[in-house]
UniProtKB/TrEMBL annotation:
This is GntR family transcriptional regulator. Residues 2-71 form the HTH gntR-type domain. It comes from Streptomyces filamentosus (Streptomyces roseosporus). Keywords: DNA-binding, Transcription, Transcription regulation. Pfam families: GntR (PF00392), UTRA (PF07702).
Length: 246
């Protein structure tokens, strides 16, 4: 059952998305919103915390919460599937497999998936949508041990991560991400409805099980304005590492 603070967060999230509270505006005060929703300030602050973690609002001491963005951000401090992230932001996720094929792992794929070059892998090209509009194109390579389970999923599977857990008990626990920008190629332009050469945000990721066994490695290309990624660091913990391009 959805908890009250989650319901309030969803209502505020939708109000931000539809322009009721535009970027730069302030939300009503805690007392006003608590009264309007019939909840305690503690419950309301839980809802605010959810929206702040998504990058939608910010706060300063003694001031009302301010709307920072209409697009929920994905934090690299957690590992969530595309569908989980989209639904948390009040969006409707979708997906469609455009093509899949069995192949032999290249040296690069073998290194990423802890395989031997020539071992069996599964290549999948999948477009992901938000509210019916194309948002990203995934080029995913699955390790052979999970390939059959992936092939059994419907082409329009909403969440591969959740379905692999439900159907095969595969838990994706850890992820490594590399971000850069690339120009849209012919396939990118066609499937994402952008011009060829348009800038895309690329996230190259490798996901593993809790015991470190690689499940997949992927080249994900996001359409501009479809997502914002957040990296939070401090003097105690710095997850952001800068490297030279390959």
């Amino acid at each position: 059952m959805t908890r009250r603070h989650q319901q309030i967060a969803e209502e505020l999230r939708l109000a931000i998305a539809d322009g009721t509270y535009p970027v730069g505006s302030e939300l009503p005060s805690e007392s006003e919103l608590a009264l309007a929703h019939g909840v305690s300030r503690g419950t309301l602050r839980q809802a605010f915390g959810t929206l702040q973690s998504e990058g939608l609002i910010g706060s300063r001491q003694g001031a009302r919460r301010t709307v920072l963005s209409t697009t929920p951000s994905q934090s690299f401090a957690e590992l969530r599937s595309f569908a989980q992230w989209a639904r948390a932001g009040g969006r409707t996720p979708g997906g469609l497999v455009l093509g899949s094929r069995r192949a032999k792992a290249t040296e690069a794929e073998a290194a990423q998936l802890h395989l031997t070059p020539g071992d069996a892998v599964l290549h999948v090209l999948r477009v992901r949508t938000l509210d019916g509009e194309p948002a990203l194109l995934e080029r995913t390579v699955y390790a052979g041990w999970v390939a059959t389970a992936v092939e059994r999923l419907p082409d329009d599977c909403e969440s591969v991560t959740q379905s692999l857990y439900d159907e095969a008990g595969v838990v994706m626990s850890h992820g490594e991400h590399h971000l850069d920008a690339v120009a849209a190629g012919t396939t990118d332009a066609r499937e994402l409805a952008v011009r060829r050469g348009a800038p895309l945000l690329r996230v190259r990721r490798t996901t593993t099980t809790p015991d470190g066994r690689p499940v997949e490695t992927s080249d994900d290309r996001y359409k501009p304005d479809s997502v914002v990624f957040t990296v939070r660091n401090s003097v105690q913990a710095n997850p952001l590492v800068r490297t030279a391009p390959d």
